[in-house]
Amino acid sequence: MTNHPHALDALAAADAAELEAVLLEVCSSPRWAAAVAKTRPWPDRESLLAANAAATASLTASDLHDAMAGHARIGEPKAGDAVSEREQAGVRGADRALLGALHEANAAYEARFGHVFLICATGRTAATMLAALRERLPHDAATEAEVVRGELRKINDIRLNRLLDEDS
């Protein structure tokens, strides 16, 4: 990937409130945003992504719930939310039966774990997301929390990279 130092420098130079607002658009966990902000300035893109990885790894169960609260249910991108629609582009055009199965599986997952099914949906079809959801449904809570943490890190990486690329 190309490094865009101007975007990175602008992000690092933002005042605290502006930086917090930008970071909360990436991930809705206040603890994550604060942890990433504390690591600035970032000498390069890789340093910002490493800050994401470290911040994501340190999130408590409550923090993970805060982070997941900012994500749309898989198969139901938030109308008018360009990020949600872009990330869940793989559900566009899925047939009604597949979307119904995804809705049912989401409900079972939410009943079991108490939060939305979180997966890095970028580049995935509705069918592959449904298969992953069904594969993860039998997990115990601790195993699933670690899978969620990994998916969140991937989503945040994509969002941070997009932020740096759009601002260049």
UniProtKB/TrEMBL annotation:
<dbReference type="InterPro" id="IPR018020">
    <property type="entry name" value="OHCU_decarboxylase"/>
</dbReference>
<protein>
    <recommendedName>
        <fullName>2-oxo-4-hydroxy-4-carboxy-5-ureidoimidazoline decarboxylase</fullName>
        <ecNumber>4.1.1.97</ecNumber>
    </recommendedName>
</protein>
<dbReference type="GO" id="GO:0019628">
    <property type="term" value="P:urate catabolic process"/>
</dbReference>
<feature type="domain" description="Oxo-4-hydroxy-4-carboxy-5-ureidoimidazoline decarboxylase">
    <location>
        <begin position="13"/>
        <end position="161"/>
    </location>
</feature>
<dbReference type="InterPro" id="IPR017595">
    <property type="entry name" value="OHCU_decarboxylase-2"/>
</dbReference>
<keyword id="KW-0210">Decarboxylase</keyword>
<dbReference type="Pfam" id="PF09349">
    <property type="entry name" value="OHCU_decarbox"/>
</dbReference>
<dbReference type="GO" id="GO:0006144">
    <property type="term" value="P:purine nucleobase metabolic process"/>
</dbReference>
<keyword id="KW-0456">Lyase</keyword>
<comment type="pathway">
    <text>Purine metabolism; urate degradation; (S)-allantoin from urate: step 3/3.</text>
</comment>
<keyword id="KW-0659">Purine metabolism</keyword>
<dbReference type="GO" id="GO:0051997">
    <property type="term" value="F:2-oxo-4-hydroxy-4-carboxy-5-ureidoimidazoline decarboxylase activity"/>
</dbReference>
<dbReference type="InterPro" id="IPR036778">
    <property type="entry name" value="OHCU_decarboxylase_sf"/>
</dbReference>
